[in-house]
Each structure stands twice: as structure tokens, then as C-alpha cells.
Amino acid sequence: MKIPSSFLPAVFFPSILLIVILALAGISYPEATNLFLQKIKDFTFARFSWFYVLGVSFFVGFMVLLALSKFGDIKLGSQNERPAFSFVSWLSMLFATGMGVGLMYFGVSEPLIHKFKLEADKQEAILHSLFHWGVHPWSIYGVTALAMAYFGFRYNAPLSLRSAFYPFLKEKIFGFWGHLIDVLALIVTIFGISTTLGFSASQLNAGLIKIGWLNESGFVQQEIIIICVVVLSTISAISGLKKGLKFLSELNLLLALCLMLFVLFNGDTNHLLASFTANIGNYLSNLVSLSFNTYVYQEGYLDWFKSWTIFYWAWWISWAPFVGFFIAKISRGRTIREFIFGVLLVPTTFNILWFSVFGNSALDLDIPLSTGVQPEKLIFVFLDHFPFSTLSTIIALIVLVLFFITSADSGIFVLNSLASCGKQKEYKWQSILWGGVLILLASGLLYSGGLDAILNAMMIAALPFALFLVLACFSLLRGLIVDERYFSQGFTESSIYWSGMHWKKRLQQILKQPQIGDMKNFIEKVIRPAMEEIKDSFVQQGLVAYIQEKNDKKITIALIVEKALARDFLYGVEVVKRRVSDVLLEDEKLPNLSKKYVFEPITFFGDSRMGYDIQYMTKEEVIVDILKQYELYLSLIDEKNEILIKEYNE
Q1: How many CB atoms lie within 10 A of CB 238?
Q2: Which of 111, 102, 167, 176 is nearest to 141 (CA)?
Q3: Residue 648 contacts residue 561 (beta carbons within 8 Å)
């Protein structure tokens, strides 16, 4: 597909303009902006919480059913394409994708907050945390990544969300609706990244205070942290230091694993591993009921439900273009079934392990929240209960910084790709501009209402994008149906026997639209002579064989070979009427195709098997085909497998 040259300004500049207007409004009118965002968010959650719940649960069901269906065998690429990465490497990258600032921020704080707010026991507190970090977010990412990867690698479309709507929009994906989809994807991605910047800045601020590098927490301190990290990320993005970024990502993952193992082996290891096993069972047994619970019958939980479950679903949706793009990039050559189970199971399993280690340990320590400890500080309060707390705090800060830098760097790369319709060429000025936009937006929203303002903006933008993702699922399904139908169609039986002789005559036949007269002529000159000749041979061998014809409502002719202990062999041909596709009729470059209906000679057998078109066969090829079916008939006759054949007269 050729990407129009007008694509970049059509997507890039509207996105920039909307973000800059919101950021400037936050800086110029902080209170009014924060109040405006809060009211829209409250209205959205009051009216559409059910849609978030139903939509995200739909994504889970859609992914599972797709993996278990016949579409699971379809590859993300050509039929014979090998995976771009080995299975172990691919799983490792999915494992790394499951990590993030969110796990550092919520791994300790979320179970404690659920226990405190809901007055719940430990098992329920952990269950809600696992629900928010389990298969649901990865289904959102998976749907987005699968739509991008399928149309990008299977149809050579741009690796962009607009390509997911090709079955509905066709070439219009490069017009207004395509621009709208990618503008929305850009905006929600920017808000999703800004949310992460806000969480990271507040937690880094708390950690730097803990080790004595800063004295207080506030807008100025967090703004400096955001500027420093985004500038470093922008430099990394424009320098092209891919090996360095890969090294930092691997180091980050290693340090995070070391931190988790440190907590695991310095706590009650046996108890934590037993908790991990119990948490898996508890999560699976409650998955369906939690997936559809809107707390409509438990009004006392509504505020908590909107602040946590709906917030998470909106956050994951806002990250879908970002994470989905990277998952798509590394999944070329995988089957859809392999892709879905890998994306859903690997990160979810790791997240359950992470919360089992950090969350259960924090619950066992029973860290009080009534003293006013802020969520961003809880990880450092938690590490104080272990030996070498200063060292573990520094490691946690390093992990946060690296997550912060790599997330922002990756975010800038994805924004560049989305803004250029998946083109591989990178523009340094674009990376610098996106870095500036991220700083400006985060600064404006932080100034207007702190982290809450960023969260409100993100959750508002996620709602229309969720609707686009639902539509993308149906578009993807439509593409898969056509794909499976095409590759399972196979060639006609006539092509199996064809040696290539008389190809000009064959071409004339293909381009002709046969009518009823043509079919009568075909039966008289090809089918009947073939059946007569092979019938005579059967009779010479002592068999009872005859030809039976009907020419009333349907034109049929059949060769029947009688058998004493089994049902008779039957090879028949029926003239069938078929409607021609409107697409072919409307094509001006196919002038020979003008009739709405054609007639074809379709085989039928006594066992009700689906027949096939034999209109291109010669007399000799029809004879070979009859013998092939007779040989199959004989091979199926034995005392254990009496062939099931309907009598021709029936």
C-alpha cells in the first residue's frame, strides 16, 4: 500500500495542536482546567463505567475464542514465513514488556490500599490487585497488537492502527477516518505516557527524599525530574543508540528480578511461594465474576470501583497503541494461536508472581496506611523492613530511573511511528518535538492539578479509543474470515490433472460465463462419453454398472456400480446455478463478465460429501476422477466401517 505524502501533516499537526492547547490551558488557567477535566471524567465514569467493564471483558473473550478457533493457525506474515525471533527470545521480550513503572509503584501499595479501603482480608486484597494486572490488560494490548501485526505483516499495510480497519474502509484508511483513528491513537498514547511520567516523577521524588538527595516533594521537584528524564530519553531516541538502549533494558530487567528475589529470599520464602500457588487458583476461580462486576448492587463500593478498576481499564487502553506496537514488531512469523497464548499467559504469570512476592510480603508486615503514608513512598517504607535497606532502596531507584528513561524513549519512537503511518524513517526534529510535547503536557497538567489532572485527561481520552478497539476486533474478524476462506479454497479438481496442454482453450473457458446450454453440451460431449466408456469396462469385469439421468427440475447424470453387501458406488454430476460476485460484475476491466448467474457441473456422491466443479476436465480426466473415487469407495468398505451412502433414488 502506498502511503500518501499528505499523511504526516494530516495526523501530526492536529495532534500537536490539541495537546499544546490543553497544556497551555493547564498552565494559564490551572484551577479551571482541573475542574473542567474532573467534571468530564466524573460524567464519563458515571455514564460509561459499564462500557469499560463490558468492553475489556469482550477483549478477553475475543482473544481466547480466536486462539481456540481455526483462525489460530493463520500466521502473522506469509504462509511459510519463519518467526523473526526464536521462541525463547520472543517470550523473554514479552516477559520484559510485562515489567514497568506501574509494578514498582503498585506492587506494594495496591494490596495495602485495597485491604485498608475495603476492610478486606489478605486474600481479597491480593485478588483485586491480580485482577487489575492479569489477562485483562494483556488482552487489550493483544487485540491492538494483533490487529496491527495481522494487517501489517499479512497484507503489507502500514504498521499503524488505521490499517486494522482496512476491511471496512479499504483505501479510505488514508483519508479522514484513517487520520481520525491515528490522531486519537496519538492523543491517548501521549496521555498514557504522561500518566507514567507522573507516577514515575512522584515515586522518584519520594525515593530521592528517602536517601537524602532532596528535602521536599512538590511541583518544582517533580518537574525537574520529568525534564531531566525526557531530555535523556530524547537524546537516546535521536542518537540511534539501539544497542545501548537494549543493554539498559536488559540491565533493568535483571535488576528488577534481583530486587524481587531479594524480597523473596529475605522473607518467608516457603509462605510466599505457597501464596503464589494459592493466588493463581483464587484468581482463576474468581475471574469470570470479577470481569463483569459493576458493583451496581454494592453501591458502597462504587467510588472504589471507579477509582481502581475503571481507572486501570482506561490506563491500559491509553497504553494500548504504545505496548501493542512493540508486541506487533516482535511477533512477525508467529501463528495467531501462539501469539495469543504467549501474550496472555507469560506477562500475566509474571505479574502474579510479582504481586505474590511484594504484595503478600507487605500484607504480612501489615504496614499501616492510617498514618498518612503516600502510595509513592510505600515501596521505600516496605524496603526498610529488610536488611541492607539503603542498598535495596538505591537499586529500586535505579530500576525506576531506567524504566522511566526506556519508557519515555520507547514512547517517543512509537509516537514517531504513529505520526508517520508506520514508516521506518525517523526524523530527529520529530523526536525532539515529541519530547518537548511530553514535557509541556506533563508540566501543564501537574501544575493545574497534580497527578490527578493527568489521570483525568488520560481516562477521558481512553473512552472513544475503547470504542475504536471494539470495532477493530470486528474488522480483524472480517479479515480473518476472508483469509481462511481464501487459503482453504485450494485449486479446482480440474487443475490437479491438468498438464498445461491446450492452455489457450483453458483461458477461454475461465473467462467465459457458462450458461445452461453450455452445461448440456458439456454433459453430452464429455461427461456421458466418459461414463459410458468406464461403465463398459466395469461390465467387462463382471460388475453391474449403469448410468442414470434426470432432466426435470435439476439436470443430473450419475454412474452407479451395484454391490451386494454394501451400498452402491455412485459418481454423479449436477448442474448448479451460482450467482456472480458484484465486485466482478462492476469491474470495467473484465468486460467478458456481464451475466449475473453462471452454471457449473458439480460432482456429488452417495455419502453426501461436498462435491467440486469439473467443468474444465477432459473426458480422460473425468475417467481418472471416477476411478479415483471408486478406489476410495473400496478402501472404506470393511466390517468396521461400512460406508454410509444414500441411495440415488432417495
Answers
A1: 17
A2: 102
A3: no
233-283 pLDDT tens trace: 777 777 655 555 567 667 777 888 899 999 999 999 999 999 999 999 999
Give the residue from 521, 520, 530 showing the smallest Cα distance to 628: 530
Q: What Å distances lie between residue 148 and 168, 323, 509, CA to CA?
A: 15, 11, 40
Half-sphere exposure of 476 (CA within 13 A, CB side): 29
Beta-sheet strand order (sheet of 597-605): 545-551, 555-561, 569-579, 597-605
Q: 305 vs 100, 198, 277, 296, 353, CA distance in Å?
A: 23, 22, 26, 10, 24
Grid cell, residue 542, equals 463382471
Question: Over the chain, what is the mean pLDDT?
Answer: 81
% of the chain residues with pLDDT over 70: 80
Which residues, in sequence order, are CB contacts of 269 under 8 Å at separation 6+?
A: none
State yes or no: pLDDT of 490 exceeds 60. no
pTM over 0.90: no
Question: Crossing angle of helices 176-210/219-239, nearest 10°?
Answer: 120
| Cα distance between residue 232 and residue 11, in whole Å | 26
User: How many Å apart are CA 301 and CA 299, to the nearest integer?
Assistant: 5
pLDDT of residue 154: 84
Cβ-contact 32, 447 below 8 angstroms: no
